[in-house]
Every structure is written in C-alpha cells, then in structure tokens.
C-alpha cells in the first residue's frame, strides 16, 4: 500500500518535474506559465519524462526498487528561488480565493455551481476562470515536487532500523506523513512575511511526522505530549552518557530535563517498547530451547488441568511440606525439598544444595539419610493417603511422595 501511494505521488509529480526544468531555464523570465496556460489541463500529465527517468523507471520496476527509483527522481528536481516561491504562492492563493467563492455560492444555491455560474460570480469569463484554476493547480504541484527532498531529509532521523519488527513506521510511511505536512505548508505559506518556504515548511513537516510517530509507531499509544517528553528524555540520556562517560542517574537525568524525580520515574515506565511473542529468543543453546517466546511459554493441551485439579495438587504440596516440617528438622526438610524438587520440580545436585545451604556435602547427605529413616515409620505421611484416590493426578502426586517415602 505504501509503495503504491509513492507511485501515485511520483506520477503526479512527473509532469511538474519536467515543467520546472523548462520553466526555470534561462533566459526565460520567472517561468513559462503564460505559455503553458494555453494548453489544456491534461497536458501536464501527458508531458513525457526525461529519457533517464524513463530508463530508470523500467529498471526499477523490473527490480522492484520503487522506493529507490522515487528518491532518485525527486533528487533530480531543481530547487526554487525566493522569487519563484513568491510567484507560485500568489497563484495558489488566487486559486484558493476562487474556490472559497465557489463554496459560498454552493451554500447559497444548495448545489454545486456550474463553471459559468462560478465565473459570473467572480466577474470573469469562463475560459479565464479555468485558465487561472489550471495555473493554480500547476503552481501547487510545482511547489510540492520541488520540496520533496526536504521531506526526505526531515524524516530520516525518525527512521528506526527495526521498523518492521518493532512496530515503528517505515521510510515509505514517514515520507507519506511528511508529504501531508508539506501540503499543509504549501496551502498556508504567506511570502509577505519575508521568510523562505523551506523554513516555514520544516515546522509543518516535522510536526506532522512527530504526531504520526506518536500515534502509530507504538503498539500502545502514548499522548503526543508524553511521547515528545519521552523522546527528550532519550536524547538527554544520550547526551549525559557521552558527557560523563557512564549512564546518568535518575537524579541527573531529572535535573537536566527540569522535571521532578517522580515525574521521571513515571515517564521511564514507557521507555521500553512492547516485545513480540514471535521474536526469536537469544539463547546460547538454541537447539534445546524453543525458537520463540510464544513456543517457550505455550502450554500443551495434555498439560492443561481443570481448576479443581489444580487446587487439589496445591493442597497436596502444602500438606507434604507441612508433614516434612512436623517430622523433620529444618535442615532435613530443606535438603529433601531441594534434592527431590518438591518446591519447583527442579532436582538439584549435591554441589548446588551445598551452595544453597552453605553446608558441606557430606553433612547434607547425612541429613538426607536421617530424614529418610524418619519417614519410613508407618505413621509418617499418613495424611497424604487421602489424596491417592483421585484418578486425574494420582500418578503425579504419588510420584512426589514416592521420592521421599521409598528407600533408595
């Protein structure tokens, strides 16, 4: 969709690009609109592109490089002088004034007026009105085509390398959003204020792109003001890190941004983006691990249990732990829980248990022997027998108790 829109934009500007070269080539005056106005409106779209553009078009269409072809095309467009910008702006404003009269006339008549009625309202001949509107449309196309390079230069800093994977806007999307800002600048530009069009258009383009990034680049949308503040925090963080040679503290970052520490902490909650469950996992031994987060945390159907079964299994674990605490010393109970995985299902080695308990391995092995001897008694773990009649988890729960009730 984005590439198609770029193609439409270029096809709209292919004719005006050629017109710029002809109109602004010396020794012609400002430009040759006076000669072009005698031609019908379809002439602009029918003007053939230069040979280099046509050959580039064929090559890039075959290679699928539409974006590169588009950028190369707009880079060949000549920039406008200040005098040319004023002349084009006057033509655009004249066309806008005529359209405003047409809208007022439509409200009065309750329908869209004809060209004759529109021209009569303006006190013009119909052919003169059509000629002036054609000149206004051509002037707007020329202003846009000659400043598309400005759009590309402004949107580049907002391009992220992982645009597709991370949800950020691609280069094509950013150019389209910047083009909307350029159109607003063309319609609002007033040369009487004395500044160049590029200076005026930069603000509109940057503002439009920033709003698009704030609204569309994140999976969870942030308000525009908070998004700009978050961008400022990232820039300030990078500047302080480069200045101090280390990561700045929260206090230093808050002071540099002139905000309170609680406000900064709330802002930092949105620092990181949203990860994808289908993103590949960065693990050392990828052969023994799942390839994505979704696969790693996916529960297989045979492992799913009804809620009542989950509760009963939890009761078994609580009862088992209580029995161990009643029958054994704290060290003996801890050794059995770690050795046989009674806490989280992971059975630890003697070395791991020694590091966890800060005890010699031999002393821990003796504690296990004493614990198993105590649990061989007939009355030990008797309360767990009531759970052994459930058909769903009998095998699993018995496996837990058999680890401590059987003598190895």
Automatic annotation (TrEMBL):
Transferase found in the keyword field: no
Superkingdom to which the source organism belongs: Eukaryota
Family to which the UniProt record says this protein belongs: Belongs to the sigma-70 factor family.
Domain RNA polymerase sigma-70, residue spans: 173-186
Keyword Transcription: yes
TM region positions: none
InterPro entries in the record: RNA_pol_sigma-70_dom, RNA_pol_sigma70, RNA_pol_sigma70_r1_2, RNA_pol_sigma70_r2, RNA_pol_sigma70_r3, RNA_pol_sigma70_r4, RNA_pol_sigma_r2, RNA_pol_sigma_r3/r4-like
Name the UniProt record assigns to this protein: RNA polymerase sigma-70 domain-containing protein
Alphabetized Gene3D superfamilies for the sequence: RNA Polymerase Primary Sigma Factor, Winged helix-like DNA-binding domain superfamily/Winged helix DNA-binding domain
UniProt-listed GO biological process terms: DNA-templated transcription initiation
GO molecular function: DNA binding; sigma factor activity
Pfam families: Sigma70_r1_2, Sigma70_r2, Sigma70_r3, Sigma70_r4
Signal peptide boundaries: 1-19
Keywords noted in UniProt: DNA-binding, Sigma factor, Signal, Transcription, Transcription regulation
SUPFAM superfamilies in UniProt: Sigma2 domain of RNA polymerase sigma factors, Sigma3 and sigma4 domains of RNA polymerase sigma factors
